User: Fold this.
Amino acid sequence: MGQLNRKLTLYGLTMIAIGSCIGSGIFITPAKTIENLPHYGYALIPWVLGGIATFLGALTFSELGARFPKSGGVYVYIKESFGPLAGFLYGWIILLIVNTGALAALGLAFSDYLNFFISVDEMDKKIIAVVTIIGLSLINIRGVGVSQSLSNVFTGLKLFALFLIILLGAYFIAGDSSNIVSGMQVEKPDNLASGILIAFVGVFWSFGGWHHATYLSGEAIDPQRTVPRAMLYGTGTVMLVYLLVIIAYMGMTPLQEMMVSERIAGDAVANAITGGGKLVALVITISIFGTIAIYTMTAPRIYFAMAQDGVFFQSLSRVHPTFKTPNFAILLQAGWACCLVLIWGSFTKLLTFVTFMDLVFMALAASSIFYFRRKYNDKPAFYLKAYPFVPIIYLVILLSFVIYTLGSLQLEAVVGTLILIAGVPVYFIFRAINKVNQQ
Assistant:
C-alpha cells in the first residue's frame, strides 16, 4: 500500500492551520456582529471570546496530536477513545457532507466573486467550481511538498492582504478617529448576553478549520512537536489578525453603515480608497481559492486512515507510487464534491446541520483527553499543564454553541440524523468484507 512522505515542516503546517481558518468569514461576519451588538466596544467581546475558545481548543488538541501523530487526526482521537464505529461515523459525515459540502460551497463562492471581473452565468459558475476543485485535487496528488508550497503561497497572500487592510485602517484612524469615537459613545446594547451569544455563531464559523492540521500528522516532520506548535501558532495568529482587521473596519466605517453592510471588507476599504471594493473582491477570491487548495489536501487523509483500519474501500489506502499521496482518497472526495456542486440548491440547510454535527464530533474528540489521561501515565511531547480546566472550559463553550444551534434546526436535523445512522450498517459491511479478505 505504501507509506506517506513526511515532508511537512512547522512553517508549512502552521500556514495550513491559518489558511484553513481564513476563508471568507472575516470579510463578511464582523458586520453581522455589529448588527447584533451595535457598539464598537461590546462588539469585540464575542471575537475575543471566540479567539480564546479556539486557542483553548488548540491547546487540548495539541496534547492529542502529540499522543497520536498519525494521519487522520480527529478521526484517530475519536476511534482510540470511543471505538472504531464512532471514528468511522466521523469520517462518514466528513466525506458525505462536511468537507465535500464545504468544498462545493467554496467552489461556488469562488466563481461568484469572479463576477467582479468577468461575466459568468449560473452554469458557468458550476463549471468553474468543478474545474477548480478537480484542478486543485490533481495538484495535491503530485506530492505533499507541492501542496505545502501551494498553501504557503496562498496563505501568505491572505495574510499580506489582511495586513494591508490593517495598515490602511491604522492610517485612516490616525487621520480621523471619529468613526471609532462615535461607535464607542452609543448606549450599551440591550440584552448584551443574548447579543453576544447570537454574534458568537458567526464568530465560531470564522475561527473554524484550524484542526485540519491534525489530519496531516502522518506527513509532518517530528509530528509530536510540529502538530501542536502549528495549531497554537496558527490559532494565535488568526486571533490577533482578526481583531486588528475588525478594528480597521470600525475605523473606516460609521456604525450605522457597518450594521447594514453585506460586504463589510469591500465597503470599509472603499470608504478609504477609490476602487476598494474590487480590490477586496480580488483578496476574497484569492482567499477562497487558497482554502479550497487546503481542503482538497487535508480531509482525504481521514478516508486513507479509515481504509487502513479496514472499515472503508481498500483502494483508498493505496499511496501513489511516485508522489506518495493518497491519490484515490483525494479523487473520491473531489468527485463527490463536484456532484454536490451540481445539486447544491437542496443542500444548503443540510450543510448547516452537518457542520453542526462536525462540532459534536469535535466535542467528542476534545473530551477524549480525559480518557487518555486515565489510561496512560506517560507525558507526551506536549503535555497540557492546565488540565483539566482548559478542556472543560473549551467543552462548555463548544457545547453551549451546539445546543444553541440545535434549536434552529428542524427538518434538516432529521435528514442529517438519517445520514449519520445510515453509516452504521455501512461500517459493519466494510468490517465484514475486511474479515473475509483477511481469511
